[in-house]
Amino acid sequence: MHRQPRLDCEKVEFEQRDARIKHHVNLAFEATNLSKRDFARLCFPSSCDITSVSKNVFNWLATGQISKHMLIPFARAADVPVEFLLGEENKWTVMELDARLRRKLNAP
Predict the structure, then answer these.
(1) Residues of the chain under the 70 pLDDT cut
(2) Cβ(55)–Cβ(93) under 8 Å?
(3) pTM for this one?
(4) What's the CA gap between 30 and 36, in Å, rounded?
(5) Neighbour tally for 48: CB within 10 Å
(6) Domain ranges in the chain?
(7) The pLDDT value given to residue 16
C-alpha cells in the first residue's frame, strides 16, 4: 500500500508566520518613507558606524528576522506597535499604514 507523504503542519505554520512577519516588517519600513540609512539612524541613535547598522536594517527587511532586543527600537522608528511587527493584524494599524503608503505614493 502506497502512503501519502504527511504534511508537517507545524513547519507550514512556522513558514506562514515567518512570511507574515517579514511582510509586516517591510510594510512598517515602507510607510516611514525613509532610506535604510536614515531608518538605521533612528534605530541606532548612538552608533558611530552607520554603514554597519544599515546592513542590519537591510537584513531585517530581507529576512524578516529581528533580534528581540531590537524589536522596540524598530517599532519606535517605524511608529508601529511591536505586536504588528510580530505578525498580529490590528485593523487600525493596517489602515494607518495603508494611509501612510498612499501619502508616500502621492507625494511629489
Answers:
(1) 1-8, 90-92, 104-105, 107-108
(2) no
(3) 0.72
(4) 10
(5) 7
(6) 23-106
(7) 80
* Rounded Cα distance, 101 and 97, in Å: 6
Residue type, 4: Q
Residue with cell 524589536: 71
Q: Cβ contacts of residue 65 below 8 Å, gap of 6+?
A: 18, 21, 59
pLDDT, position 97: 74
Label each residue of the chain as H, E or C: CCCCCCCCHHHHHHHHHHHHHHHHHHHHHHHHCCCHHHHHHHHCCCCCCHHHHHHHHHHHHHHCCCCHHHHHHHHHHHCCCHHHHCCCCCHHHHHHHHHHHHHHHHCC
pLDDT confidence of residue 92: 65
